[in-house]
UniProtKB/TrEMBL annotation:
Lineage, opening ranks: Eukaryota, Viridiplantae, Streptophyta, Embryophyta, Tracheophyta
Span list, region Disordered: 389-422
Binding site for substrate: 245-246, 331-337
Keyword Coiled coil annotated: yes
CDD domains: PTP-MTM-like
Keywords from the UniProt entry: Coiled coil
Positions of the catalytic residues: 331 (phosphocysteine intermediate)
Provenance organism: Olea europaea subsp. europaea
Residue ranges with Polar residues bias: 394-422
InterPro entries from the UniProt entry: Myotubularin (IPR030564), Myotubularin-like_Pase_dom (IPR010569), Prot-tyrosine_phosphatase-like (IPR029021), Tyr_Pase_AS (IPR016130)
Protein's recorded name: Phosphatidylinositol-3-phosphatase myotubularin-1 isoform X1
Length: 739
């Protein structure tokens, strides 16, 4: 590519040689090189080696080494989705259940069959199929021969309430005269028509939705294919949706890319759309040029194709939801347009698929497990022959020919060779991109129904096209298993989940307006609402970056949500601190109350001790002893003055009663010591006992066994004097009998 020749300049600027790189993400980059250098050829060869490697193992997903985003077994995830559709919550799929066949379960109407566990019946179908319970595995093998690529009718979604079924297959092999029939195929399709709930004999209606234009279906009859006859299938109706093939979609996206590059704010040639065609206003400054620009967008046909897929999917969802009918969808091979329709209809019918986890399950079931050729459609290399592969895995173009490709043959060895650029280009088609575009249109129409945002869809497409992960490599589940994709490459879903975990619910992948209570049932958009627009977040992000933003309102709402989240966290921290402070205050209050109780108890003990000290002092004085106490109530001296003690106590009983210190005791015995203290030779009370007791033996024994005094080696905590007994007793009385 060379720059267009312009008017001659005096300063003769050296000419440049350009290299244009067209990306699958709507990006067009132009590199300029100086003339008479070989840099452009070297860069071109390097880019060619990276974009079209000869082997699958040369892709970045393998060359980057083991990823930290480990991939789990996709078969387990498929079985878990089957269990959910059957309404079985208890079983959980594992590698052991897959190996021993215990995953083959059923409900009242449907069952999981492992007839294709080794991919011998159909190489592009998953290892497990959801089929009617009344159909045996032998009948399934007989029915598959009547469908192109052996892709027989199987269940892809079922309503547990109404038992309505959404099924998929490939075109029937009815031949040129449209007169070929198969009893096994007709029996299998009839088994999809279960009895309507609430009726005795009436069966539900069958709609056979052919995604192709009617003329294309008739043309395929010349090569052995075709479409069903409603006369051969009970209570059926044939509907054609008129969706074009992969080649029309490829050309349409190319024209759309040229349009946004030409009329964008920053085009790849460096010229702004405001200055194009010699004018400084948009579109050249005149109405005719503006109309021409708008018609160029319409001529691309992209929005028309998106509308066709949306309309077909909405029609299918309405038949299932409103009539409880069974719909069988197919195109030619059953892996392009069929996948678009059944997955989009499931998205409209089942709110679970409108969550992030459910959306992942939907893609893995309808796109990956049922054999959409991602390698061919995205222009990626196929798994060619190498030391670890028994034969080359190639795939034939879906141009209508029904001859089996080398991959479909049971055995055989083929030489390893890289696909030619023309072959890869003929198979390339943005089928998955178009489907994600349809999802973005539904997200625009129903902003409260989806948990994920448009940014999530953009990141998903970028990851699919980046070759960083192995989920979307190869053309079928069988090829990915043979290549060891799940063990060798990273998982896209784990990567996206890790991104969301970093910011939580405030991440851009989450839809701020999501409210599952507003759309708990199916979404049934009317025909008037199916008016798609250019998806700005994807199609315009390189040429119109400011217009491609999510929108000022959404950005403001997201910022407000972040602030609310931060305030909520601050509120939780403040509440935790307040709770902790309250707990501390309560504990301090309890401690203060205990301290008050302890202080009151200590004060009572102090008053009691003072009273007892006064009593002891009086008792000792009545015995003829003088006790001197210090200010801290310790005994500092005792004087024995027994000779001068009168026979009567200096205190009378009336004086005691009038003093108010002690209560009168009617007991006849004298209890001088009532409470126990620790026996301590230093204790003043012990010294008093030893000094005044005339009946202690020399060995320290006490000869007063009946009295409540302090014995040698015993413990007491205080003394209590019985003044009544002391008044009645004289120290000269023979109260104690001598030995």
């Amino acid at each position: 590519m060379k720059l267009p020749s312009g008017p001659r300049q005096i300063d003769k600027t050296p000419s440049q040689r350009l290299l244009q790189v067209i990306g699958k993400d709507m990006r067009i980059i132009v590199f300029g090189f100086r003339s008479r250098t070989k840099q452009r050829r070297a860069v071109y060869d390097a880019l060619l080696r990276c974009t079209r490697p000869a082997r699958l193992w040369d892709l970045y997903a393998f060359a980057c080494g083991r990823s930290r985003f480990g991939n789990t077994n996709p078969k387990e995830r498929l079985l878990n989705e089957y269990f959910r559709l059957l309404g079985l919550k208890s079983p959980q799929a594992s590698a052991r259940t897959i190996e021993d066949g215990s995953s083959v379960v059923s409900n009242e109407c449907w069952r999981i069959s492992n007839v294709n566990s080794n991919y011998t019946m159909c190489a592009t179908y998953p290892f497990a199929l959801l089929v009617p319970k009344s159909i045996s595995d032998i009948e399934i093998q007989q029915a598959c021969t009547f469908r192109a690529r052996c892709r027989l009718p199987v269940i892809t979604w079922c309503d547990p309430g109404t038992r309505a079924v959404l099924a998929r297959s490939s075109q029937p092999l009815v031949g040129l005269m449209m007169n070929m029939r198969s009893n096994a195929d007709e029996k299998l399709v009839a088994a999809l028509l279960t009895q309507l709930i609430g009726t005795k004999e009436q069966k539900r209606k069958l709609y056979i939705a052919d995604a192709r234009p009617r003329k294309n279906a008739l043309a395929n009859g010349a090569m052995g294919g075709g479409s069903e006859s409603s006369a051969n299938y009970f209570q059926s109706e044939i509907v054609f949706f008129g969706i074009d093939n992969i080649h029309a979609m490829r050309e349409s996206l190319s024209r759309l890319r040229d349009y946004v590059d030409t009329h964008g704010a920053t085009s790849s040639d460096g010229m702004s759309s405001f200055l194009r065609h010699g004018g400084w206003t948009w579109g050249g400054g005149n109405l005719s040029s503006m109309s021409a620009s708008v018609s160029t967008l319409g001529d691309s046909g992209w929005l028309i194709h998106v509308q066709s897929v949306l309309a077909g999917s909405s029609w299918i969802a309405a038949r299932v939801a409103l009539e409880s009918a069974t719909v069988l969808v197919h195109c030619s091979d059953g892996w392009d347009r069929t996948t678009q329709l059944v997955s989009l209809a499931s998205l409209l019918l089942d709110p679970y698929y409108r969550t992030i986890i459910g959306f992942q399950a939907l893609i893995e079931k309808d796109w990956l497990a049922f054999g959409h050729p991602f390698s061919d459609r995205a222009g990626m290399p196929i798994a060619s022959g190498s030391g670890s592969m028994p034969f080359e895995l190639s795939r034939q173009s879906s141009t209508g020919s029904l001859s089996p490709s080398p991959m479909r043959q049971a055995s055989g060895s083929f030489p390893s060779q890289a696909p030619s650029p023309s072959h890869a280009q003929n198979n390339y088609s943005p089928i998955f991109l178009q489907w994600v575009d349809c999802v973005s249109q539904l997200l625009r129409m129903y902003p409260f129904a989806f948990e994920f945002s448009s940014a999530f869809l953009v990141d998903l497409l970028d990851c699919v096209l980046s070759c960083r992960f192995g989920n979307f490599l190869c053309n079928s589940e069988k090829e990915r298993q043979q290549a060891g994709i799940s063990d060798s490459c990273g998982c896209l879903w784990m990567y996206l989940a890790d991104l969301r975990a970093s910011e939580g619910s405030s991440h851009v992948h989450y839809n701020l307006f999501y409210d599952p209570t507003k759309h708990e049932g199916p979404l049934l958009p009317p025909a008037a609402a199916l008016a798609p627009t250019v998806w700005p977040q994807f199609h315009l992000r390189w040429t119109c970056p400011s217009e491609a933003q999510a929108g000022e309102v959404e950005a403001i709402c997201r910022n407000m949500a972040k602030k609310i989240s931060e305030l909520q966290k601050a509120k939780e921290v403040a509440e935790a601190k307040a709770k902790e402070t309250t707990s501390t205050v309560e504990s301090l209050t309890v401690e203060l109350r205990n301290e008050k109780l302890s202080s009151s108890s200590a004060w009572n003990l102090t008053k009691r001790a003072r009273k007892e000290i006064a009593a002891i002092k009086r008792a000792m004085q009545s015995l003829g002893c003088k006790i001197h106490f210090s200010e801290d109530s310790e005994c500092v001296g005792i004087e024995n003055n027994a000779a001068g003690i009168p026979q009567k106590s200096i205190y009378s009983a009336s004086d005691e009663e009038s003093s108010g210190y002690f209560q009168h005791d009617n007991k006849s015995d004298m209890s001088v010591f009532d409470t126990v203290l620790a026996d301590d030779p230093v204790n003043p009370i012990t010294r008093v006992c030893e000094s005044i007791c005339p009946l202690r033996t020399r060995d320290g024994g006490c000869r007063w066994p009946d009295a409540e005094c302090a014995r040698f080696g015993s413990e007491f905590v205080g003394l209590k004097a019985n003044f009544n007994a002391l008044d009645r007793l004289s120290i000269y009385d023979s109260y104690f009998q001598p030995e």
